[in-house]
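Researcher: Next entry in the queue.
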Amino acid sequence: MKRILIVVIAVWSMGFAKTGFAQGGNDTLKVLFVGNSYTHWHSLEQIVTLISDQAETKLETGKVTLGGARLREHWRGERGLKTKEMIRKGNYDIVVLQEQSMGAINEADSLRKYGKLFCDFIRENGAKPYLYVTWAREKVPQYQETINHVYTDVARVNRAIVVPVGKTWERARQLRPSFGIYHTDGSHPSAMGAYLTACVFTAAILREVPENLPPVLEVSEKDGKSTVRIEVDSLDLVFCQKVVREVVLGW
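Model: Structure for this entry, 251 residues:
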């Protein structure tokens, strides 16, 4: 797979590292998501691929996830994880790193340490590191500022690219407090939350939000033998486009 140029890293007004892949004529990018349930729920990586079908560049996605997994467990190969092996052998263009949801709050030093180790390792294997900035849990929205700050610092030090999912969720809630992006547990994403998150990733990587977002998606369950149908109202699609363009493309 041909490599494409990286645009210069800058910093946006909220302190996020700003950059991305230029289109450069390539029509496919290979992306690996490293994380836990915030990536796994509703098959986020599959939604990203299906949304990218409407863009000029196709995102071929894979994932290595385990419930509650922290970056240090991915790095050490604990709990049966083979993350470094997948990165080494996968010929990926992009590797997305997602720390456990409270990691930036309770274990920021661990995120900094293993974020650096992974960013260096990802580059050594020919890919670009992206950081998945997660959202604050529903009952503690004040944590978002700290989450943003820690991830931004890791990105700055390691020349990584930030994907401001949490910032986008925050803006969506400001504009529509009733927008149902949380699961009933107040932590994980609903199907709508996963859809919005996938739009953020598509925009952050490709620098565009497709005009014709797919209103109906079918994604595979974790057993790979059954599918789940996700349907999104047309007005919600427009809202997703608006928020993502404002937060992600408004850098």
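Model: The longest strand covers residues 28-35.
Researcher: Noted, moving on.
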